[in-house]
Design a protein that fits this description.
about 210 residues, alpha/beta, six-stranded mixed sheet, about 40% helix, about 20% strand
């Protein structure tokens, strides 16, 4: 894995929010899926880690965003964590996976990745977290990759073309969308390898 992406471990992230502005709008859900690699160099998505998040103090909550996701930010049934607790719960297994894979850092994979990375970085800054496992500005965008591989940039449509099952009723849950994005990312990278786009043995030899 450390040879495949220049020492970066791909971690799929999805967030659900109360708007589009990472500085002012609440982060409400966050989920992560770590990617592993088998002996043949094929990527495999691991189980998702997900948290519901309490709106930070003074956060803006756009009604249109809440209506779209169906999230009630203050429902006790959510069992939401404070933003810092949620990020630490998410980052702990990511840091462990980075170390176990021999990588130097995680790199965020997302569908329209700049959106997810913006909210993660803003939350990290608000909470004063010093050890953010992610690269601060680089990311892999599955909307772009899916556009290249399948001619589709919407997650549901890309999954449909890729023959990945997708339940529209379950969408806009961070855990579900992260899992489907992880399947899509792994499928595209693995397909590229099958077509001869990356050779594990050659890449290892070139490194040394």
């Amino acid at each position: 894995m450390a040879e495949r992406f220049r020492g970066y471990l791909p971690v799929i992230i999805d967030v659900e929010t109360a708007g589009f502005n990472a500085r002012t709008d609440a982060l409400l859900e966050v989920a992560a899926v770590v990617v592993s690699m088998d002996e043949e160099g094929m990527l495999l998505p691991e189980e998702a880690v997900a948290c519901n998040v309490e709106p930070f103090e003074g956060a803006n909550l756009e009604r249109s965003a809440l209506d779209f996701t169906g999230i009630d930010p203050y429902s006790p049934l959510r069992e939401a964590l404070a933003e810092k607790e949620a990020l630490e719960a998410l980052f702990k297994p990511i840091r462990k996976a980075v170390k176990a894979s021999g990588c130097k850092r995680a790199i965020l994979v997302g569908h329209n990745a700049s959106f997810d990375l913006g909210f993660i970085n803003a939350a990290v800054e608000r909470c004063g977290i010093k050890r953010n496992p992610f690269h601060p500005f680089s990311s892999f965008d599955t909307a772009t990759l899916a556009g290249l591989a399948f001619g589709q940039t919407v997650l549901a449509r890309a999954c449909e073309v890729a023959a990945i099952s997708f339940d529209s009723k379950a969408a806009h849950s961070a855990a579900y969308d992260a899992e489907k994005t992880a399947e899509l990312f792994c499928l595209i990278v693995n397909r590229w390898k099958e077509l001869g786009g990356w050779d594990l043995v050659l890449a290892t030899q070139e490194e040394y």
